[in-house]
Design brief:
6 strands; Dna Topoisomerase Vi A Subunit, Chain: A, domain 2; alpha/beta; homodimer; 202 residues; Helicase, Ruva Protein, domain 3
């Protein structure tokens, strides 16, 4: 794309550095700011800088929060003997939305991904082990993505914990609720047959 | 969406203020910055602020540029008697990519849109009239979008110029090159029949 201005080029480059935003969308965003009032740009620049500079992490679960301990960890009504291990905040929100889990979380902040240079030490695995050791935690739900990287991370954590007296579970894989069999991929359908559950009669 | 942090909420709101970016995408972008190095955020904040504060307009065609007059207006090889009127920079790029136009441009910076409070005085129509009056311009191509707002703007400009001795044309509407008739909408197909062109025999 041949742009008539260096300043515009830089703004386009800035937007295009974000995931899922290509050059064309980036140009549309930059031209949107050009049309809008000065405050719109200042608000965005200030909000992201402020977020990046001042955001902190819960010292228990490593979720993003404004204080030392997040609301979930500070909530005395949440069960303390079960921990759900997730990749990031979005997964916490997803699990919370199900209203099926009343325990606490542990946010890894990523999954092991050698291709992108993310090793076990780059995510919150050590702190998970430390958190469990000598605690009252009885079960760990590894709710990580069903990808190669997610499975690797699940395997790594399970191996690390093999000597710890603790129940470790992962999410059930199978046909989604409302899903047609003909549209399911073979791996998922195969897994749902292997891990079939007893039907409750009556 | 129930976010655990005010700072994150503000960053999400900032991204979601951009066109085409919803709350979910905005959260993904904010979490991306959270993971990335400090420089990534600083670069974006600096680039958009710098762009907004220091960008200028070509005093001839009102296109975005870094200097007083843009490269196209300053180019002595471009024809000066024909002006293509477009909505914004993206349309200049689109027309330039066709390599079919060697004249100059006039960038309106929008189209008349009463629903969004954009009147004729909010876009560069007066400066277009002033630019044409007493000049050597012989033809004006109104290359505005084929929407209600674009057509209104085309109509408005044409009416304003009715006493000026000048050829005014608009883009041809019709079946796109490579397009199948059965997939064309009725209005487009109807227009392409009404405005059929003589086939060059031999």
């Amino acid at each position: 794309m041949n742009l008539p201005s260096k300043l515009l080029e830089e703004a386009v480059e800035a937007f295009a550095s974000l995931p899922g935003i290509g050059k064309k969308t980036a140009l549309r965003l930059a031209l949107h700011l050009h049309k809008e009032k000065q405050q719109a740009t200042d608000f965005i620049a200030h909000a992201i800088t402020n977020f990046k500079n001042n955001i902190s992490q819960c010292k228990e679960c490593h979720n993003i929060c404004d204080s030392e301990v997040c609301d979930i960890c500070a909530n005395p009504l949440r069960e303390t003997d079960i921990i759900c291990v997730v990749e990031d905040l979005r997964d916490v929100i997803a699990v919370e939305n199900t209203a099926q889990f009343r325990g606490k979380y542990h946010v890894l902040g990523g999954v092991i991904n050698p291709m992108e240079g993310v090793g076990p030490d780059d995510i919150q695995i050590e702190s998970l082990i430390a958190r469990i050791t000598g605690s009252e935690v009885k079960e760990l739900i590894l709710a990580l993505p069903s990808t190669m990287e997610g499975d690797t991370t699940t395997f790594y954590i399970t191996k690390k914990l093999k000597d710890v007296d603790l129940k470790v579970s992962t999410l059930a894989r199978g046909i989604p609720i409302g899903g047609e069999l003909e549209y399911a991929d073979e791996v998922t359908l195969g897994r749902s047959i292997l891990e079939r559950v007893n039907y409750q009669k009556g």
